[in-house]
Amino acid sequence: MKFKGSLIVVKDCKKALKFYQDMFGLALIRDHGGNMELSENLYLQEEKYWEQITGRHVVPQSNQTELYFEEPEIDSFAEKLERLYPDTEYVNHLMTHSWGQRAIRFYDPDGNLIEVGTPV
To answer: Among the three residues 39, 58, 77, which one is the final residue of a domain in this structure?
Structure first.
């Protein structure tokens, strides 16, 4: 058995791809029309396919999982996020944890929770 990565559900793969390219530099590896494989083992699946396959509805902002990224230049990242995606909904703006790590949490345009922190 091999773990391949994480799949997130999005409304529109092309719009989600642009967000993940803009903010994280991820690249498209394969496009299966409504399903995409990105670099860093992230997979996108359009909501209509997810609901059809699983028979379940998507619950945006469910807060059960988060995508975690590390970025040493976190101030620049936070400024870029605000500039490119000013309507972003934050869980917490840039903060410093008690152990010294700086982090920011927010939702992507489809309600998937993301954390970006400085390397620990």
So the answer is: 58
CA 96 – CA 104 distance, rounded (Å) = 9
Contact 61, 109 (CB under 8 A): no
pLDDT in tens, 6-49: 999 999 999 999 999 999 999 999 999 999 999 999 999 999 99
- Tell me, what's the pLDDT at 23? 98
For residues 117 and 81, membership in a common domain is answered with yes
Q: Could you tell me the CA-to-CA distances from 77 to 35, 88, 112 in Å, in that order?
A: 27, 13, 18
Do 46 and 36 contact (CB within 8 A), yes or no?
no
Structural domain boundaries enclosing 75: 61-120
Distance from the Cα of residue 120 to its chain's centroid: 20
Q: Distance between CA 75 and CA 118 in Å, rounded? A: 10
CA dihedral sign of residues 41, 43, 103, 85: positive
Separation of alpha carbons 43 and 36, rounded Å = 6
Q: Are 101 and 117 in contact (CB under 8 A)?
A: yes
